[in-house]
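Work package 3, deliverable 3.1, input record:
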Amino acid sequence: MKEQLSEIKKVAEEHLKKAQSVDALEELRVKYLGKKGELTAILKGMGALSAEERPKIGALANEVREFLSNEIDQKKAEMAKILRDAKLKSEMIDITMPGKKQEIGNLHPLTKVLNEFTDAVIGMGFQIAEGPDVETDYYNFEALNIPKNHPARDTQDSFYIEDNIVLRTQTSPMQIRVMENTKPPIRVIAPGMVYRSDSVDATHSPIFHQIEGLVVDKGITMADLKGTLEALIKSIYGNDAVCRFRPHHFPFTEPSLEADRQCFSCGGKGCSVCKGEGWIEILGGGMVHPKVLKNCGIDPEIYSGFAFGIGLERLVMGRYGINDIRLFFENDVKFLKQF
Amino acid sequence: MKVPMSWFNDYTDISGITPKEYNDALTMSGSKVETIENMGESIQNVVTGKILEIEKHPDSDHMVICKVDVKDEILQIVTGAPNVKVGQIVPVAKNDSYLPNGVHIKTGKLRGVESQGMLCSHEELGLSEADLSWTPEYGILVLPENTEIGIDIKDIFGLNENVVEFEITSNRPDCFSVIGLARETAATFKKPFSVPKPKFSENSENITDTISVTVENPDKCLRYCARMVKNVKIGPSPAWLVHRLKASGIRSINNVVDITNYILLEYGQPMHAFDLRHLSGGKIVVRNAKDGEIIKTLDEQDRVLNSNDLVIADSEKAVAIAGVMGGFNSEIEDDTTTVIFESATFDAVSVRLTAQKSGLRTESSARFEKGLDPNNTVPAIERAAELIELLGCGENVGGMIDIKGNIKPQNVIKFRPDKINAFLGIDISKEEMAEYLKPLEIKVDMDKMELTPPSFRPDLEAEADIAEEIARFYGYNNIPNTLISGESTKGFYSPKQIFKKNLANLLTAQGLNEIFSFTFTTPTVFDKLNLPKDSPLRNTLKLRNPLGEDTSVMRTTTIGTMLDMLSYNYNHKNESAYLFEECKVFIPKNAGELPDEPEKLAIGMYKKGIDFFNIKGVLEALFDGLNIKGIAFERLTDNPIFHPGRAAKLTANGETVGVVGEIHPTVCENFEIGLPCYVAELDIEKIFSCVDDNVKYKALPKFPAAERDIAVLVDKETAVGELEATMIKASGEILEDIKLFDVYEGDRVPEGKKSVAFALKFRAADRSLASEEINRVFNKIVKDLEYKNKAQLR
């Protein structure tokens, strides 16, 4: 029996070497290890052995069985791997071909920059106010210290609906609406569409957008205005943006200022972008005029505040190097998809 | 306002200050410099030279060869000028020089002889005869004998002048003058400043012997001064005066008119000169115009006035519109011999209204309407008298008429240095503050702690105005940059603002691009949209003064502008456009009331191969993403903008919240869009109110689901939505999901019918469903479909 076992082992080993497919291996497994296999037959015949011989032969038979079983499994695994590798190789694709992407759209560049701006000021404790596009003369002018027949009305040619109703020429009327309805401390920005009777060209549009800012509280100073504006300018243009503040005039702020940013194109030397000045005007602002506070029922002896206004289109044009304001309102998808 | 820089030296000292320094300093102290231009910039490398010898050109009859000494070298120059003589000093354009209009002179050969430059005539230098103090002969410009050689020609003619252009804000009428800007200049550079008092002599007569002045409206005429000049000799002005006017953008006319214009620039005081011959009755009356009174102004236009207008009149007729423009009938002429100068202050609002009404914006009215200083009239008219004498163009008659109207008293402002420091966020002494205010001629009374601004500064009314003056000269950029102190506030987006941001993000994620369009539109848009004549959308808010008809009404719907944008893209060869906009429409209310401004979401799409279900899918995904619940799509057949069979209205609790559909082919044609396009308009406020903001977690299913398919044959017209409704109603709680997976019409179903197939999913939260239970429900579904929808199970 012992000889028989070593003979089986030997023959099986020969067969195993020759086996070239998973099927052939399976056949061998059945042939030797299956229910009717040769090894199984031997094990079945063990009953005829002496009690002394039985454990020895049994151990040997098990050894052979284990050996064959391992050999078959191992060889099977090797073959499977070869097959898998061959399959993977045949499945190679050209990964430089385009992806199956879901076409996505884009926010308008005006919205993108506005969102960055509002995110920045919200972090500074501001809320966002809204107001009507169609305004009364009172909110758009009178309450802002621009009485009828004031020469400042010249610079803002208005579209009129009725004698006392205009399309707002600035976002500043929202200052008045906020101050009428809110007790200090006030920190709001109010973005919106504004309207001026300008003919359309590359730098003028009868409709454009402004972002108004307003802060009113006890002890607000001009230094706070400058600090806030500097922080905002840096959040929009980056930390290395250089800005300067120079005196200006607005009827509803006193003192008033305009902020310039050093020309990004020439670094202040003067070029065609900044029209030789080295600086590009970016916003206007000032300390809320005491008369304006009074108009809203806020005592200027107790409270002070500052306000500012930024032209959104100009901001976005500078940001992306857009040279024609009309592109914003033509909405060609070739334009919209760029940002 | 343009001023040649050197003019400031008449009142202060800016020597040694470069244009760049001047520009920066004045801009930072509040007088914004727009540009500084050098007048002679286009002339380069042209110097004075002396002609040493003249030789005949060997090859030309009319040309000569000159040897010209330009100090550093002797040049050989060929010229054809007839007037050259040895010893003359002439302008020499050297090799590589530039003349006005970009002419570039280089060494070259003229008929074989080298010429190292060109001798110039005055025309070639861009000069007119008026720029010279002598009459030039034809040919080369011959300069005075004592002219130095080798010096830049621009220095000879003052062409090195830098002209500063300022942006003057409306609150600073005083800066519409050279003197006002010189005061700012002096204060900025901390230099002395003074305006010389005019000196002149008068004859022994008195103006009052010849004319009288009456002011009938002292509210509108705050001051009226008049002087008289006789034996006037009208003629040209001297070069210096012409140069200054020219540099400031004013053309020289004659000496008397030039004097009034010079005073306008120097003092900012508009003046007028009348010819005494045309003032009948020896009278000047400042009065309200009569209703319907007509005056022909200097520009030869007839102007119809009314009683709100102020005029200067003689005993018979108006001779000028006060502060706006003189009359044609009293103009200075070449043979004028006696002139009455007017130097007056008129009410700002009155001048503004008259100028606006008559469409006459003049240098004079532009200044008056900002509010001029009544105390400026006397120095200005005296300066005019001085110039008359200086120019030798007349004899000043003794005396001056000076009538004062109702002048507002001077403002006195409390001086509270602590308050100003606190307001500006700085900490400087009251003495330092006073140092900034004094050069501006603001009187500082340190005992009473009071400030009195000068009468030329009506803009200084209160403490904040003073704070600005201090800040300007302390330097805006020296004020520290601090962060807001005090009570902290919480910054946040409102729920609706967040909703709108999310909405935009969900739409871009679905491939839509955000647009911005104009809120005003053309009234013809409603015809293009197929809307009936009685459509309420035609009731628009109208602009009184639109730029044009096409932007004359505020839109009442976003669909027109959306179609404009689709059309723009279609006609700019974009294969597809998926667009959306969050924007307002304007619904008029009663006259005098502000309109409603509801916010809309507009969506527009075109692309070959898409259909109604693409835009419907966009909306469904949007609603899923925003957690909007309970919006139903109902068939819409009667909206003329849309295809009658391919449109829906969106409703929530029976209220319409929007429309969606394929645009009617006629409307597409009207907008010149060659593909079917799909548009939706939703009311943002209304869909916002459909947001389910009470979201709670639901336990994940523990028990398995059972799936069954059902296919039925129904009439072609039967809506899938109706079938779904029947199935939901029939199945109680255990129907978890219905998915439509096939709709078939064709050969294998009878004419007029269609086959519709759904996958149904059943599940109970608390048990595994037994097949008998599912069968029972399934059978009920089949029965109800048969009964309610006349469906046949396939």
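Chain B touches chain A through 91 residues (CB under 8 Å).
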